[in-house]
Specification:
elongated; single chain; binds zinc ion; 696 residues; alpha+beta; 25 helices
Length: 696
């Protein structure tokens, strides 16, 4: 100090001394008070160098602010302002040299110090930035300290990596795994936690999807443990509902497969300057040591799970590879390939007569490139054919499947029961502990005794609740088993075809059975539908199915009705035919009652000869022809017809008629005679009334 004190001149002492106290984060402020003390000790230094105590200005309003930039740091800006106006004789700070190297703000401050002849003091000494040697020293020290920092980090990281390489690095473990007293990884001794993890893996294996696993836990009212790594309840086992995210974390975590893994994530700094963890692909993990410690599943099982998750994810993505079985009735959902372009086909449902009927559609082009649908094939017939194929070709395998299903059901129920029982046991145990604590306390110590008693009461209540919950759950499980499931299980074990055909078997189960047996089905629609079935074992089979009738074909008029209409046309008009058919209880192809328009449409469509043509063919004359023949006006013909002087036959419902040849006794004009007295053909009149009736 004495060596450097010659740098301090009266010129410096006339101005003030600025002590800049800096801490980067709030946490440092709290935890690293020692460094704060060191910073304030610098104040004594300034006094020793000759500054008066009242001339020392402490700038510490930047405590808790990040040093990344000067923006937002009021204190630092104030310091720079004071220095640049030449009011500061000296700037005191901790590790100024390091800051001068790393922090461009500080670097600028040093330059300003040089311009305004301001000294710099840190724990090591006094520097005059105007002096070349001092500037060199500051720079060197900065470089050294940066190098030191780097070495320190590298050494730390190196040691870490070495340890990781040997699998000895102690890392936070996922719930269900803990370190024992010798720092070895073991399964959590808490049986309930252990079984919950096991149950998750088992449920995932059964359902094949993370969401279905979450749903199963929710339906069975099961909770999943977690162990917070920070916060007030750090390290405790907490129970809560299982979430989808959590399920995925568990399934993706290789430690459950007993593997030691290091470097699954890396830090990635985003454009906003925030650091986010990023998951690396498997081949970039630093260390993977399978079978490093006990686990819940095997490594193969772990990889299988990842594959399933990947396949599920792909079901929503680019290549819709096998999606998990869903609720809809389309048996081959997720298994159908397009025989034209080789893409995976999707399912659409149409509602037909109140029932959902599937259509397999190849629409990748349409979705991706707004092109045309490649092909679409009605699915009902195909599903039925595949079902039939399974029934006849894989009977022994089917029995096996059925037995497995039965086993699985029983095991699942047992498992759930066990987990619930454990919860009751735990609650009982805790009640017992609370009771003992209460008994041991000195009854005179009212406050403690009261608190313990309240705790005991709480525990008792929880115990009772969990017991009731368990009993309710048991009853539900028993009811399900005793009535429906037992019968079903028996049926499954003995009669696979019956189970298959049973309408109460959920579509999802049927699909799962198909997936056990069939790899995929390639469909091609030409003159008929060709279905290439590829079984899991590699065997293939080709089915040919007729094209199902299209919608319009299904709405066709039955052939016998057409024949009937043809016959009726000989002696009836369209509306007469319609009412005759309705009287006999027939309905049209669309399921409607007949009317003259429908009859007319059918007549035209099937090329049936019209009533007009039939009557003409039989030699009947038009009104024009009769009028010409009898040398009278058409009106006269109508009058004669209406008064029964001429025979006429209606050929349509507008009462337009054709006339048989009047023959030699044709009526002639007789003025002065009443028409009613000249009636020649009394039969014509009633005929006409009938027609009018029909028209009504
Ligand atoms: Zn296609």
């Amino acid at each position: 100090m004495t060596m450097s004190s010659h740098k301090v001149t009266s010129l410096h002492l006339e101005r003030k001394a600025y002590l800049y106290v800096r801490q980067s984060s709030m946490q440092q402020v709290f935890e690293n008070t020692e460094s704060t003390e060191r910073q304030y000790a610098l104040k004594q230094r300034a006094v020793a160098l000759g500054w008066r105590v009242e001339d020392i200005v402490v700038i510490d309003c930047d405590l808790g602010q990040s040093g990344a930039s000067a923006a937002g740091r009021q204190g630092f800006q104030e310091l720079v302002a004071e220095v640049s106006m030449g009011r500061a004789g000296v700037v005191l700070g901790l590790e100024v040299s390091r800051l001068a190297r790393n922090n461009c703000d500080w670097h600028r401050l040093l330059e300003i110090c040089a311009l305004s002849d301001t000294l710099i003091v840190d724990e090591d000494g006094i520097y005059n930035p105007c002096d070349f040697n001092d500037r060199l020293l500051l720079g060197l020290k900065g470089t050294m300290s940066e190098a030191e920092l780097h070495m320190l980090r590298a050494r730390l990281r190196g040691g870490l990596l070495n340890k990781a390489r040997r699998g000895e690095l102690k890392m936070p473990l996922p719930v269900g795994l803990v370190y024992d007293s010798a720092d070895r990884v073991v399964l959590d001794p808490d049986q309930q936690a252990q079984n919950s993890v096991r149950h998750l893996f088992r449920t995932f294996r059964c359902t094949g999807s993370a969401s279905a696993t979450v749903k199963a836990f929710r339906d069975q009212k099961l909770l999943f443990p977690r162990r917070p790594r920070s916060g007030p309840r750090k390290g405790e086992l907490l129970w809560g509902p299982l979430t989808h995210n959590r399920t995925r974390q568990v399934l993706h975590n290789p430690r459950y497969a007993g593997a030691f893994v290091f470097g699954r994530h890396c830090q990635h700094r985003g454009p906003d300057g925030r650091v986010r963890p990023r998951t690396l692909p498997r081949e970039r993990w630093h260390t993977v040591l399978p079978e490093a410690h006990p686990g819940y599943i095997t490594w193969e099982h772990f990889e299988q799970n990842l594959k399933t998750l990947h396949a599920n994810a792909c079901a929503h993505g680019h290549d819709r590879r096998q999606s998990p079985p869903r609720e809809g009735p389309a048996l081959l959902q997720g298994l159908v390939m397009c025989g034209i372009c080789g893409d995976r086909m999707t399912v659409r449902y149409h509602s037909r007569q109140g029932r959902q009927s599937p259509v397999y559609v190849c629409q990748r082009d349409r979705i991706e490139y707004a092109g045309r649908i490649c092909q679409h094939i009605p699915g009902a017939g195909i599903d039925e054919a595949i079902g039939g194929l399974l029934l006849e070709t894989v009977t022994p395998a089917a029995l096996e499947v059925a037995l497995q299903v039965q086993d699985e059901l029983q095991r699942r129920i047992d498992e759930v029961d066990r987990l619930h029982r454990q919860r009751v046991d735990r609650a009982h145990h805790e009640t017992e502990l609370a009771r003992r604590r209460f008994m041991q306390v000195d009854p005179n110590n009212r406050l403690v005794a009261d608190a313990l008693e309240a705790d005991w009461n709480d525990k008792l209540r929880l115990y009772k609740e969990s017991q009731e919950h368990y009993e309710k759950q048991c009853k539900e499980a028993r009811v399900q088993l005793s009535e429906e499931q037992l019968a079903e299980i028996a049926a499954v074990a003995t009669d696979f075809p019956a189970l298959w055909r049973d309408p109460t078997t959920p579509h999802r189960e049927r699909k799962r059975i198909v997936r056990l047996l069939v790899e995929d089905v390639t469909l091609l629609r030409r003159d008929e539908i060709t279905a290439h079935v590829r079984f899991k074992g590699g065997a293939t089979q080709t089915l040919s199915l007729p094209l199902p009738p299209s919608a319009w074909q299904m709405r066709q008029t039955p052939q016998q009705i057409v024949v009937k209409i043809d016959r009726l046309l000989d002696s009836h008009t369209d509306s007469q035919i319609a009412s005759i058919l309705n009287d006999r209880g027939h309905i049209s192809g669309e399921g409607k009652a007949f009317n003259r328009f429908i009859v007319q449409k059918i007549r035209r469509k099937y090329g049936l000869k019209s009533r007009y043509q039939r009557l003409r063919d039989a030699g009947l004359l038009t009104i024009q022809e009769v009028a010409d023949l009898l040398h009278v006006h058409e009106k006269t013909i109508k009058t004669w017809r209406d008064n029964g002087l001429l025979l006429a036959v209606a050929f349509n419902d507008k009462n337009e008629c054709l006339y048989p040849h009047p023959g030699p006794n044709s009526p002639v004009k007789q003025q002065g005679t009443k028409l009613s007295e000249r009636c020649l053909h009394p039969g014509v009149l009633p005929n006409r009334t009938e027609e009018v009736q029909c028209e009504a």
